[in-house]
Each structure stands twice: as structure tokens, then as C-alpha cells.
Amino acid sequence: MSTAAILLATSLIPALAAPLPPPEGEVLLRVTGNVDNPNVADELHLDRDQLMALSPRVVETQTPWTEGVGRFEGPLFRAVLEAAGAESEYVRVLALNEYEIEIPVSDLQEYDVILAIKRDGEAIAVRDLGPVIVLYPFDEHPELLNETIRHRSVWHVEAVDVP
Fold this sequence. Notes:
By secondary structure, the protein is an alpha+beta fold.
């Protein structure tokens, strides 16, 4: 086998994420279902510090539900799935108000979708759509301003289920 073939083959093997310890702070997000790296029973529970340690990003964008440009911070959604050791074609996002929707993982690969936990430097309170918001980079990709993506842009997120 050539060196190029070996490099290609090994680059296709996903890096195995080391299991995270149980959270020390308030749990903001649970990843349930097909999770290979749980830290509480068979789920991955994440607090604010753990979330911000997973490929943190800043997205400055307007959203369909907030006024003006906001500076949102949080981990890449795909990095959270990698930390959970979760693989699927889609995930189910569940909100505190029992709203749920399926999001194709291809969205998370194509766009830098974050799980926003801060806006303008402050934690996002439940009364302000928090504690976690699925945030697409709307200003960077105007094609995302459509009905389908608006439905996938869940606020009040409490869990991500991986079938």
C-alpha cells in the first residue's frame, strides 16, 4: 500500500474522543441515545465550562428572533457530537417547552452551527431563549434565512438525542 493510500485511509478514521468527566457545574445540555462516550449513566452531560472547551466559536449575526446583530458564543454543534462519540445521519433536538425537531448532521458539517450559550458576553438566560440555542451563521450564509432552517434553529435547548 502506498504512503498516500495509508494517509487517506487513516484520515477517514474518526479520532476517538476521550470521555469527559461528569460535570461540576449546572448541566446545560444532555446528549442522549447512541452515545459512545457517556459521563453520567449512558448519557453525556455538559456544563458551561465543558461546552466552552469544545471548539468554542463566536458568531456575529442577526437572527430571525432577536433584534440587531448579536455576538453569540458556544461550541460547534459537530464538536459536541464528536465528544459524545455520536454518529448518525440526523439528531433530534429537544427544547424545554417540548418542541423537538430533527436536524441533518450534514447541516452541521456544511455550516459552522454552534450551540450558543452566551450572547454579547453574557450567559443566555431562559427568559432570553437560553440556556442553549442552535445557531446557524445567518449573516455569513444568507441562504440559511428560510423556513426550514428557522425551524431547526431551536432555542431553550435541553437535550440532543442521537438515534
